[in-house]
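Key idea: predict the complex, not the pieces.
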Amino acid sequence: MSHDGLAGKSIFLCKPDTKPLAASEYEEFLQELPDWNIMMYDGLPTLERAYTFKSFAHALAFTNRVGDLAEIANHHPALLTEWGKVTVAWWTHNIKGLHRNDFIMAARCDALYHAWE
Amino acid sequence: MSHDGLAGKSIFLCKPDTKPLAASEYEEFLQELPDWNIMMYDGLPTLERAYTFKSFAHALAFTNRVGDLAEIANHHPALLTEWGKVTVAWWTHNIKGLHRNDFIMAARCDALYHAWE
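Result:
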């Protein structure tokens, strides 16, 4: 599966009884997202990556584009905007863990960044 | 000094030999900024506040307005945008601590938020 392949998958409505993915289940996705890391916050996994830019304005512009992707998918990340850097974190709040949707959104962010550079 | 008073002060160029403020020196500023807290990260103080909003889009719009303030002042915060929430953090990178500028920018953010509500 190509990088674009994951980015092009559909986001599905995540019901409250959906189980979060186990680490063994998202291993394959991570191979397609080499710059992303699983970070643990309060015992819950989050999919996280930092992107670098040449200014604050460029970083904020990227934040806005990721915000657009999030609004379209109705799935929202945490976006830390700093001078020359945006850190994006995905997780699925209502299942308290990671869903396939999070990896798809991560791949869409990478595609956005690749087009940006 | 009123809240607006601090927000209306000028931002000064911060030279590398400028000393960061000691806690006793910014106590007065904090009295005007009751919703802000001093957070320690890697031993360095940061001035931080979270603002709440009714949606992701509203939070991102506020992030952009704070970004505008930052660009105008050429002094940039860290902005964590989440669904319905923006956490703003100010500090002065080149003096590894807090400068009067940080408190002025915090007051400007509060003024922006008050006009928003």
